[in-house]
């Protein structure tokens, strides 16, 4: 198996350096043109691929314009427009209710603070972090999606299982200037190489420092299960 560097801080910096070289154009893959579209796209992306979300939001964003339009849309109509998205009924409710709150309590503008964002229906810390970072240029933390969760455990950066606890572990060891980019790098590497079910360790730029590397390691630290 790979041998991680002596400290988690050194490990995190080395991971960022190598992944930046491997994915120099890494960035958010959701498509949007304003903060509301970003918020809606991120809500829809939960347990759904960004590719699928982008396919559906192209027509969605042409149909509805502004928070009032979403808030006033019939539940059945909005759900039907999202029917290829996972949990589309619940997500339609979240979007309608979040947009109603934005229209009524925030003068139609997507909030720019963590506290206000997480009060919106369907918005947790991960979604709020994405909206703050890409909608408001405010970086308060690290977005922990399934790729970040998997890679940070496999690479020995954390032993925590839940996103908020993982974020707490990552923030002190990932250089603050890379908090936003760290997520995109993990997503790209998680899609291309370090996949959930069949990671390509033979072609991984991190294999030599990865304690989960399948060459010798018996355990996938992401799940705790044997390879």
Summary tags:
227 residues; mainly alpha; Endonuclease Iii, domain 2; Endonuclease III, domain 1; 2 domains; two-stranded antiparallel ribbon; 11 helices; 52% helix; elongated
| Beta-strand fraction estimate | under 5%
List how many beta strands DSSP finds: 2
Topology as a string of helices (H) and strands (E): HHHHHHHHHHHEE
Main pleated-sheet profile = 2 strands, antiparallel
> Uncertain regions: pLDDT < 50 for 5+ in a row?
none
CATH level-four homologous superfamily name of the largest domain:
Helix-hairpin-Helix base-excision DNA repair enzymes (C-terminal)
Distance between the termini: 12 Å
- As for the number of domains, it is 2
CATH topology of the largest domain: Endonuclease Iii, domain 2
Averaged pLDDT: 97
Question: What is the C-alpha radius of gyration, as a whole number of Å?
Answer: 19 Å
Strand order of the largest sheet: 1-2
- Just name the CATH architecture of the largest domain: Orthogonal Bundle
Number of helices: 11
Keywords: 4Fe-4S, DNA damage, DNA repair, DNA-binding, Endonuclease, Glycosidase, Hydrolase, Iron, Iron-sulfur, Lyase, Metal-binding, Nuclease
Catalytic activity: 2'-deoxyribonucleotide-(2'-deoxyribose 5'-phosphate)-2'-deoxyribonucleotide-DNA = a 3'-end 2'-deoxyribonucleotide-(2,3-dehydro-2,3-deoxyribose 5'-phosphate)-DNA + a 5'-end 5'-phospho-2'-deoxyribonucleoside-DNA + H(+)
Pfam families: EndIII_4Fe-2S, HHH, HhH-GPD
Binding site for [4Fe-4S] cluster: 194, 201, 204, 210
